[in-house]
Known about the structure:
The chain is of the alpha+beta class.
Amino acid sequence: MRKDRTFLLKMLEIQVTTNVHTGHETVSLRDPYPFFAHKRRQAGVFPGTVMDYSKTPESLMPKREYSAVSFDAVNTVFRDGRVFSSAPYDKTIGLFMGPTILAMEGKKHRDHRNLVSAAFKSKALARWEPAVVRPICNALIDEFVDTGEADLVRQFTFEFPTRVIAELLGLPAADLPMFRQRAVELISYHVNYERAFEASAALKDYFVEQIEQRKSKPTEDIIGDLVSAEIDGEKLSDEAIYSFLRLLLPAGLETTYRSSGNLLFLLLTHPEQFAAVRSDRQLIGQAIEEGLRYETPLTTVQRFTTEDTALEGVEIPARAVIGVCIGSANRDERRWERPEEFDIFRKHLPHISFAAGEHTCLGLHLARLETRVALECLLNRLTNLRLLTDDDPHIHGQPFRSPTALPVTFDAQ
């Protein structure tokens, strides 16, 4: 199991080099924020990209691209789904995922989103916390609590979101290594698209089998809910169900694993703020929000213009790609004072890490719950938690960001 975790983490961090190249400019993967700030000071929108396409197949390369880097520009793009559409995702990530709510719009999007949104609302979360999330976090801590040291990425943050989403889907624990590997291969389509296609086909076969089992024997889990769900009197097709599950499984791994690791790194490298959170658990909520603002796990997503338009005075033609730079928007100096500082005590202003508008992240409440419970469990079980800095652990990546490792020592409570 430990070898499995290490191998998959290496796959997720395969982009770990020093820099990426965006046209004629170079962006540090360790710290892309100076580049974001430089572009933001010039304009809130610019022709060009913040992405690295060096490993992207030519067929998937955008022909015309602009980037939104100010908070106002990013917010506008997210909230105007008519002009700034996500539908062409069907021709990029949709090639691997199949048709999902990520690319749906209008009534079709609302109908499919409503089918699954109930599973992520507060009533369901209140049930999941004591029954699923907290036991999983504590079980993982049990595996290393007596050793006095751990890598919290490999042994904790990478593990618990995957186990949680598998439990909510009702998948057998024995299948965990297989579907986690396939999920990581699917996420890494920009690195190896042939392997991503293979993973997509394997997950389809796996989920079709799970769907068939629930047709003959209904279950009280997310897959069971989808099998029995109806839209306008019609049940969902198998394709609609397994496409959604192919999206949900890696999403349940990727963002929470990264955001929880980011928060732990930030607290461990800001010991006064960490001590304040340990002393007053009421601060956990605002620590989570500041962590999401300061180090969002996904810095950039894409939208596509449906018509000629203008954004912050920049003319953008129809059928252009818009790189929506969440990481830059969350550090916009026109919205936050001292935006380049991590400060859990700052005046709260909503960040935009979960997007906005009709495509606001469906799992945002679950992600917050998982991160809160994970931090509570660590604080309950471990004291004198210290980050070992000899190997220079740090947050890394673009567009996905998370710590390379979190080697710590501690005393057990």
